[in-house]
Amino acid sequence: MSSWSQAFKDDPDFLNHFIENLKEAVLFLIAKGIVSKERLGFGGLSRGGYIAGRLASLIKAKALLVYAPLTELTFLSELKEIQNKTHLKNYSKDLGEIEVRAYIGNRDQRVGTRNCFDWIESIVEEQYKDSIRSPKVELILSPSIGHKGHGTPPFVFDAGAHWMGMILTETGSSLLS
Question: Which SUPFAM superfamilies does the UniProt record give (predicted)?
Answer without folding.
Answer: alpha/beta-Hydrolases
